[in-house]
UniProtKB/TrEMBL annotation:
This is DUF3456 domain-containing protein. Keywords: Membrane, Transmembrane, Transmembrane helix. Residues 39-140 form the DUF3456 domain. The lineage of its organism: Eukaryota, Viridiplantae, Streptophyta, Embryophyta, Tracheophyta. Pfam families: DUF3456. It comes from Opuntia streptacantha (Prickly pear cactus). The chain crosses the membrane at residues 20-36. It comes from the Eukaryota.
Length: 147
């Protein structure tokens, strides 16, 4: 009975840690947008890239962290659902800054600015030098908070 209670407490602690981890991730992503000229558009571009990462994600098994044996020979530890694991967050954020190099700031018809993903830099009709500068700006800022 006591062992079950301890296990429930560990699970509650893991759930709370997962919640804090996701909250921290969101705060960091908003920090990326904070130093960019058009914050909403930059935030949308980062969110778009994260959504692309989620859509391309392969299904994964639970993470089995049961690597100890108790006195009865039973494995001790936790099995964590990959969807709420720290590993998933790390893998989603890994390479995010490099992927942001594919984005540049573009003025739309309504004179607002929007971060767009460039498929082919050679076919770009706007000033390529300026577009590359915008691309480096968002990517280098992204790298500054990841370090």
């Amino acid at each position: 009975e006591r062992e079950r209670e301890r296990e429930r407490e560990r699970e509650r602690g893991a759930t709370m840690a997962d919640s804090w981890l996701w909250l921290a991730t969101i705060v960091v992503l908003f920090a990326v947008a904070a130093s960019i000229d058009d914050k909403c558009a930059a935030c949308n571009a980062v969110a778009e890239e994260l959504e692309r990462g989620l859509a391309n994600e392969k299904p994964r098994n639970h993470l089995d962290l049961r690597n100890r044996l108790d006195s009865k020979g039973q494995r001790q530890g936790k099995v964590i659902d990959y969807r709420v694991s720290e590993l998933r967050v790390v893998e989603l954020l890994d390479g995010l800054c490099e992927k942001m190099q594919d984005y540049t700031l573009l003025k739309t018809a309504s004179e607002t600015q929007e971060w767009i993903r460039i498929q082919n830099w050679d076919n770009l009709t706007i000033n390529k030098q300026e577009a590359k500068a915008h691309s480096k700006h968002i990517s280098s800022y992204c790298g500054s908070w990841r370090s």
